[in-house]
Every structure is written in structure tokens, then in C-alpha cells.
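Archive record:
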Amino acid sequence: MIKATILSTLALSSTLAYSAQNAKNQPVHVSGENSISEAKFNSMHCEPRRMKVHLFHYSFYKEYKGTYDIEPNKCYAAPDFTSVRLSIPDDKGVAFKACRDNNCSDNCYIFRNPGIQIDDIWWYVNKGYSKSFSWVSPHSNSMNLNE
């Protein structure tokens, strides 16, 4: 009997609270530059940071393989390479990750603050050519620097 009374009271108070809240909600009629249809949301878009990476097949920057315009914390598959030149943006804490597999997950080495050139990556990735790379940025936690 007590349970029925408590449940009835809760149901009645919930109904009254809901109807009182709905009475307060009134539609907003806005026109002109303050309306949602007139808002320019695309003006808030910002370009992602990018870095150019020049890959070379052999040590001492021989046999150019191509240039990649990369974003931070994304893995890029590439033809076999062992030397790299970087066009580093004005950013502190740049790290470059080179790996022997195609998806940045096996036999990797992270070069912290490498400057603009890295030669003989071959020695660091278990004596083989690198096949993937990424720019590891400290501003995003999607990649762990302690691999």
C-alpha cells in the first residue's frame, strides 16, 4: 500500500514538472543576421598543421623517392627509404617515426627533435629499409612517444 502511494505521488509530480517545463519553453523567432540560417560556420574552419617530408632510397640523400605533405599523428606508407629531409614548421617537440612495416606498427624508431635531416635510418629500424613513417606531435595524444 505504501509502495502504491509513493509510486502514484512520483508519477503525478513527474507529470506536473514536465508540463510546467514545457510551458516555459517558447519558440524563438529570429531573423536577419542573428538567425541560424544566416550563420557562417565555415568561417571558423582552420587548416591542419603540415610538414613536408622528402624521402631518399639510399644514405647520404641519394635516389630521391618523393615528397609527402603530411599531417601530425597519421601513418604514411612509402617506397623503401633510408634518408629523410624535413621541412619542419615552427613547432617545438617535433618527432619523426620510421618503421619497417607499412602501417607504423613494427620495428619502429622515433627520432626526437631530429633537425632537418635524418640519415641511415636503416640502422635504427633493425637493419632494413623503412616502409612507413609519421610525424609524432606532442599536441595530440593519439600516438605514444614511448613505443
